[in-house]
Design brief:
Helices cover 56% and strands 8% of the residues. By secondary structure, it is an alpha+beta fold. The protein folds into two domains: 80 residues, no CATH class; 107 residues, no CATH class. It has a four-stranded antiparallel β-sheet, covered by helices on one side. Helix 1 packs antiparallel against helix 2. The protein is rod-shaped, with a radius of gyration of 31 Å. The chain starts with 15 loop residues before the first helix and ends in a 7-residue tail after the last strand.
């Protein structure tokens, strides 16, 4: 750093920058992390620069301590962030899987109600079933059903459907399963009206 860019301080004067950097360094270490750590480091560096022409031992000690504390807070915050990211990713993935399971269960119940109204026969085509369910719907109800049946961006169907089944088919027969391949598994719903999420591979981060 260029000495000419650092205004000198009188020898008997306490540097406000040194005091500020020390306070910020303490805050950064114990509660504020990067929000105080970086300003503490900058203030401490400038304060040290000011001591080159008119050194004041008290100011230099405060600035050095502040820089050390800021370095600790920056390092600690980085380590904690690195430890938290995998946990956050797992929580988000778990939330997606839970929603997928809740949605497939809802669609399965709708299909079961359809079968009960049609002598136990499930629809020949899932596309026809969806068209029937969306017919004459509007507003919030239509928006909800669209989210239930279709992928948000591609507008492709969210579910793979097994046609030709009835309520008398084996209970373990898969009626619906997820078409989304980004969930590290798939939700399935059976003729026996059971739903579960099957993980097809471990989640790595």
């Amino acid at each position: 750093m260029n000495d000419s860019a650092c205004p000198p301080l009188p020898n008997n004067r306490t540097s406000k920058l040194a005091v500020s950097s020390l306070v910020l360094g303490v805050l950064g270490t114990f509660c504020c992390g990067l929000f105080a750590g970086f300003p503490a480091f900058i203030c401490g560096a400038i304060s040290l620069c000011q001591q080159k022409k008119h050194p004041a031992t008290k100011n230099m000690v405060m600035a050095i301590i502040a820089i050390a504390l800021s370095a600790v807070s920056i390092f600690t915050t980085g380590v904690l962030a690195g430890l938290m990211v995998p946990g956050i990713n797992k929580a988000l993935e778990s939330a997606k899987q839970t929603k997928e399971l809740a949605d497939i269960r809802q669609v399965g119940i709708m299909l079961f109600a359809y079968a009960n109204d049609h002598e136990g026969k499930y629809p020949d085509s899932f596309e026809d079933f969806v068209s029937t369910e969306l017919k004459d719907k509007s507003g919030a109800e239509l928006d909800h059903l669209n989210k239930l049946f279709y992928q948000p961006k591609s507008h492709e169907l969210r579910w793979k459907y097994t046609p030709g089944l009835t309520t008398n088919s084996p209970a373990e027969t898969v009626l619906l399963e997820s078409a989304n391949h980004s969930l590290h598994g798939k939700a399935v719903h059976t003729v026996g009206n059971t739903s579960e999420f099957i993980k097809d591979r471990p989640i790595h981060y």
